[in-house]
Amino acid sequence: MLDQFNSLTEEEFEKLKDAVPLITVLIAGADGNIHNDQLEWANKVTKIRSYNMKAEMKAFYLEVGKTFSERLQYYIDAFPTNVADRTKLISDRLSHINDILAKLEPEVGAKFYKSFTSFAEHVAKASGGFLGFFSINKDEAKLIGLPMIHPIISTSDEEE
After folding, report:
1. Domain-by-domain residue ranges, the chain?
2. In the chain, N or C terminus with fewer CB closer than 10 Å?
3. What share of the chain is helix, strand, coil (3-state, %, to 5)?
4. What one-character DSSP code corresponds to residue 4?
5. 3-state DSSP call for residue 57?
6. Which residues of the chain have pLDDT under 70?
7. Based on C-alpha coordinates, what's the Rg of the chain?
8. Closest by Cα among 128, 143, 118, 139 to 57
9. What pLDDT is recorded for position 160?
10. Is residue 12 a contact partner of residue 100, using CB atoms and an 8 Å limit?
């Protein structure tokens, strides 16, 4: 586990890493159809973030990227195909992230929250629309703010 996350147990760190493929399945499957372009884009965004973010987030996405494809496929295969059932199951799992984020420094927790919601938006925009504009459907729009994860407000003006 990364040093900046030493306040977390190994299990908590794994749950934090699993949030990324869970968010992908949640958003990509919100309309009942998990599109390959959304999955491919999520994988690319994970890779981009592993070298194009600030310190702890960069290191985090590097760790996520090591198992992202496998975890994503696991969740797609293991979770129900019924949208409502799958959404409930993923929402319940993601709600456990609240306790984990609360253990981190507030600035770091805020970065995670912002990172997760922007990741959800990237996945939603990956299919449909014209050149990616206006491509978030109503089912995705209900979930991209990740209502099951409590916002953590940063006191810093630093941009992601």
Report:
1. 3-141
2. C
3. 65, 0, 35
4. G
5. helix
6. 1-4, 128-134, 155-160
7. 15
8. 118
9. 44
10. yes
